[in-house]
Amino acid sequence: MSVSKAEYSDRDAVIVGAVRTPVGKGKATGALHDVLPADLLAHSLREVVGRTGVDPALIEDVIAGAVTQVGDQSVNIARNALLGAGFPESVPGTAVDRQCGSSQQAISFAAQGVLAGSYDVVIAAGVESMSRVPMGSSVLPGSDPFGSGMAERYAEGLVPQGISAELIAAKWGLSRTELDEFSAISHDKAARATKNGLFDNELAPIAGLTNDEIIRPETTVETLAGLRPAFFNEAYSARFPQINWEITPGNSSPLSDGSAAVMITSGAAARKLGLRPLARVHTMTVVGSDPLYMLTGVIPATEKVLARAGLTLADIDLFEVNEAFAPVVLAWASTVGGAHKDALLERTNVNGGAIAIGHPLGASGARIMTTMLNALEQRGGRYALQTMCEGGGMANATIIERL
């Protein structure tokens, strides 16, 4: 695919730089475990400024996604990281939590600020060190983050994400083999992309880690078939007899560490500063969805963002759908693509997804945007669409247009 590049206006929100760290294993043995989250984020902030050549004094805000904002990731990690990166004290920062889509939402907030005329130069970023700050550790013993109103509204009780993934697999009739085949393909794509240097432009090595640590080139359907269900629970089995218990560590995204940063400017600022815009943020949306199934919001989010953009599936050259669990992407493709789901999947996560690369929660939105932008440039496409499911039943969707 190759198309002529689009023009951009002075008030467009344009992406002028995007970078990410390699993703490390979210375990004590992972390569990035000894890097504090603020330092991990500071690395991406420093890199995106260095690669664009922008004077950090011109940055009007740093908006950073972080999900588990406790311990090493508490006390406004965006501000702490930007100061640690050496930015002037005049640069403000704020942390955002929209669960798995936190840094994709940071990108939306940054672009919205540019479009509204509030910013000329802004960085959207994200970080998560799941090895140092375990998922769920912000929920203290005895606390109730949901409240009595939620308990009354959902009297039968909501469920963890793994059970939501099982419910999706059951509702869409997805077999264990289909899930494992999808997952093996993700590893193969990511391994080939790494071998062929397709990630090189987006990576900022740190702590001796030069490539994503979790990708397993040797992954096969046969090896995945030997893994046991990760979320089997007798109580949930009785409540949801339709569940076949097909979700395993092999067809789920792994615990991960990483950060990413995306610099967004107005078109006018890009021209003034002599920057090369890579893409403009074309259209953004966010939706709520059923909190029991929780992970299906990518479907209405995709439909809504396409309608808002005045585009169709056929107009989009590349899709990135976060691989929180394999059934999320397969249910999305089946519903959105219909009879053309196989063709849709051929344009989706072309260099592998979170099952292989990893899913450092607060960083994933910016990580995926960086990877998608890089792939769009390499393939000479025009439009790309990113969408992510989020805890609590939400999803962001963003369309970018290459410039």
TrEMBL record:
Pfam families: Thiolase_C (PF02803), Thiolase_N (PF00108). The active site is at 100 (acyl-thioester intermediate), 359 (proton acceptor), 389 (proton acceptor). PROSITE patterns: THIOLASE_2. The keyword Transferase applies. Its EC number is 2.3.1.16. InterPro entries: Thiolase (IPR002155), Thiolase-like (IPR016039), Thiolase_C (IPR020617), Thiolase_CS (IPR020613), Thiolase_N (IPR020616). It is an enzyme of class 2 (transferase). The keyword Acyltransferase applies. Residues 14-266 form the Thiolase N-terminal domain. Residues 276-402 form the Thiolase C-terminal domain. Belongs to the thiolase-like superfamily. Thiolase family. This is Acetyl-CoA C-acyltransferase.
